[in-house]
Amino acid sequence: METLNTSSALIRAKLLTYSGPLAASYEQLWNNDRLDELMPSFLVLIHQIMRASVPLMECAVRRCNEVNSNDPLCPALADYYGHHIEEERDHDVWALEDLEAAGFDPKVALDAVPSPAVAQLAGRQYYWILHHHPIMLLGYIMVLEAYPPSNTTIDKIRDLSGVSDAGFRNLRKHGELDVHHREELDQFLDSLPLEKNHIEMIGMSMLHSIESLVACLQTLRPIDWHRPADRVMSSSIS
């Protein structure tokens, strides 16, 4: 059995303990008989989640700077979030570009009202950042970057869903990037003078981020798409 002698190992062990329902929800989605209808909605969900990432980290940087002199963790946290902002910038744009490349109108994705589960996923983090401690955002980041899909998995869901490969560029890139981000985050965690309460805060953030993400997946519904090509055809007929 691996000895949990570092902060990152202890936190990763918590994540492994919590992540069963999330893994099961993904497996249920990939094996859904209506995956062809749900996969575009999943790609919209990816965009809805990604567009919150940079603003959340910007909020965390501002909060860290506000309490800098009163908390020894905040200067390092501000540096980490600031660096990670640049790594994640415009990834939500990639998601929209993938939808368009796969034949779906990105305006429909932008007009779709995010579910309460999506709002809860990000909203909890804003509350904890502003009203408790910005370190809790690390739990959210760990969950979102913990298990990027392999190319084999992406090939499987592409073939089962019928969505063209152009719609999966974002997922494929994150399959590569998130491995590096995970290593970077583990090194960062181990560089911090974390106490038991800090690890508990990160654990709480992970647990409830998983809970919200599971709800996001379970409440996916098909979107009434109007593809650009369909609109051109209908206008030429009329």
SSE pattern, N- to C-terminal: HHHHHHHHHHHH
Number of folding domains? 1
Gyration radius, to the nearest Å? 19 Å
CATH architecture: Up-down Bundle
Strand tally: 0
Beta-strand percentage range: under 5%
What is the chains' assembly state?
Answer: single chain
Task: Output the CATH homologous superfamily.
Answer: Heme oxygenase-like
What is the makeup of the main sheet? Answer: none
- Anisotropy-based shape: globular
CATH topology annotation: Heme Oxygenase, Chain A
Question: Can you count the helices?
Answer: 12
- Which whole number gives the mean pLDDT? 89
Instruction: Find the structural class using helix and strand composition.
Output: mainly alpha
* Percentage of residues in helical conformation: over 70%
Polypeptide structure, described:
By secondary structure, the chain is mostly helical. The protein has one domain: Heme Oxygenase, Chain A. It has 12 helices and no strands. Helix 8 crosses helix 10. The longest helix is centred in the N-terminal third of the chain and has 32 residues. It is globular, with a radius of gyration of 19 Å. The C terminus is likely disordered.
